[in-house]
Amino acid sequence: MQPFTTHAGLVAPLDRVNVDTDQMVPKQFLKALTREGFGRILFYDWRYLPGEKPNPQFVLNFPRYQGASVLLARANFGCGSSREHAPWGVKDYGFRVILAPSYADIFYNNCFKNGILPAILSEEQVEELFKRTEKEEGYTLTVDLPKQTVSDKHGLCYKFEIPPARKEFLLQGLDDIGTTLQHEASIAAYEKSHAATATMFEPLDVKYASNSR
Amino acid sequence: MTAMPPKTLYEKIWDNHVVYEEPGQPALLYIDRHLIHEGTSPQAFAGLRAEGRKVRRPDLTFAVMDHSVPTTDRTLPILDQDAIKQFDALEKNCRENGVRLFDMNSRNQGIVHIIGPELGITQPGQTIVCGDSHTSTHGAFGALAFGIGTSEIEHVLATQCLVQGRSKTMRILVHGKRPKGVTAKDIILAIIGRMGISGGNGHVAEYGGEAIRGLSMDGRMTVCNMTIEAGARAGMVAPDDTTFAYMEGRPFVPRGKAFQEAVERWKLLKTDDGAKFDATLELQAGSLAPQVTWGTNPGMVTAVNGRVPEPGSFADPNDQKATESALKYMGLKPGTPIVDIPVDRVFIGSCTNARLDDLRAAAHLVAGKHVAKSVKQALIVPGSRGIKSAAEKEGLDKVFREAGFEWRDAGCSMCIGMNADVLPPHERSASTSNRNFEGRQGKDGRTHLVSPVMAAAAAIAGHFVDVREFDVAHVE
Ligand code: SF4
Description:
The structure holds two protein chains of two kinds.
Chain A: E1 6-14, H1 21-24, H2 44-47, E2 48-49, E3 53-54, E4 70-73, H3 85-93, E5 97-100, H4 105-113, E6 117-120, H5 123-135, E7 140-144, E8 149-151, E9 157-159, H6 164-172, H7 176-181, H8 184-193
Parallel strand pairs in A: 1-4, 4-5, 5-6
Antiparallel strand pairs in A: 1-7, 2-3, 7-8, 8-9
Chain B: H1 9-15, E1 18-20, E2 27-30, E3 33-37, H2 42-50, E4 61-64, H3 81-97, E5 100-102, H4 112-118, E6 127-130, E7 144-147, H5 150-159, E8 161-164, E9 168-175, H6 184-195, E10 203-208, H7 210-213, H8 217-225, E11 234-237, H9 241-247, H10 256-266, E12 279-284, E13 291-293, E14 301-303, H11 317-330, E15 345-348, H12 356-366, E16 377-380, H13 385-393, H14 396-402, E17 406-407, E18 428-431, E19 446-449, H15 452-461, H16 467-470
The structure holds iron/sulfur cluster.
Iron/sulfur cluster (SF4) is lined by residues 66-67, 111, 113, 132, 134, 350-351, 412, 415-416, 433-434 of chain B.
């Protein structure tokens, strides 16, 4: 995965609490077999009118927010379904950073796996950023992960929260499966010592398939 | 010798599954059972293939087709080409990796969170993951079970482990006895209403109290299923005699002496006296009424004898805005009594409420009555084929059919609308599922979450009714 250090970009505001992942990527797009192409359908039902015409009322369609790469959001962002299609959409749309007061747990996890930084700011700080984004067309923020800061060119500088292990993960762009596999000996030892629970009792009376299809 | 500090159930299961840990870092946690379905797994297998990796423990991995499967006659050809591709991908991935797959024609097929427990794959004390947020359901057995993303599925496939930080713990006690007509679904909806949909973020919840102990396994699963809707990653109920009685004789549960030994191990799975939780919530079951959601998340809920709220009645401006937009989406006026809301469609199904207890309760209520003329469709979708055939043995299918319900094959169905069972735009459903997000059951569809008996009663009346005034003689 591509490491994350600093990022500067245009901010787009999404002024809604409890944005759920069903909203980010609706069910009809969950039949895809790859991770690609979810940017086009991100926030589909809000973003498009019938015939996939952009809905001019939806904030991400405003001309002033085109090319945004920092998503400013409200509390409990990404609640609901565990679908990783949601962060795939966020990333593919072009966002590298999300700023919000809080996130739902599974979505938060999923962001890191995709090199997206979900930074946590206080409610007041987020409120101030909404004000500034609204007021100034072309409002950009610079996000510095090593220093854990978000700053604008007018001297605003906020420190954001991120657990240390998560920070390290993004900074190094780690392949966590590879890292885990280095602990093969520990995994094998665990399996041996927990054989009673780590084996399956095999029944005879279970049916996995029928040949009718 | 110093005494061991008292531990919560969560901490006991956690400690028993740590494979490797460094101070200040997330732990490497061993996963006992990995469940997968066609919706969130193809990209994980593709990732595995791209890196030339193998499934480490196919014997601990189980796959099922549930999200996109038709609930109508499965001998007919499937028209949805994308769904076919999903099924084929799952079939191929399982075949190549030696993973057992319950395909849509297996007599054991069903919703992943229903067949895990039903077949005894789910057992107390285990760690269980699935690429699906409602994996919390399995916690009803005193397991640590939670939903993961696709990258994590790939991680578990390759390593049988997950990198995890410890959660905070929360105890939720429901005291006293449930009144008649108040079900497990009403308990959990009331809890979510109290906590809000982010109140549990960062926590694993353990349920206790007389009302929880008094629930059947089916009811406990309903409660744990919706724990994720309060933001908590997992919900748990310590195993007891109800649990052990449920487990005995299930296909994947050891038999005879091995079973007795397992029960002795399982009995130790409870929170020690004096163990500390980071948060506690207590409520009295006796004060609860049947619940109905009025908005666009499961926390927007009220008692059936309540009214649609005024946005101005909320203190937080964010809540006011959210309520306003929810009411607009739902097509509801503030102040409307809940019982005056008409319903167009009724869906009794999903991993929340499609088990035998749910179907029995709904069937008792509709027996000898008929679905209202104004109701366009009333669906019964059993959670698994096993439940379907058990219900048919009891004649429940006949009761439902005679009352004007459609009796379908097992799957997720209108909970998510990935197959043909979709709620049309601007129509209103009474649904026993777990999510009422915008567009969840269909674009612009309006979902009201209720218990199975409340859904059944709404189907008969054509609008919401208080089941306590309906006919609750048989409602458990
Ligand atoms: S029934 Fe609904 S909530 Fe449950 S697994 Fe299926 S889609 Fe998810």
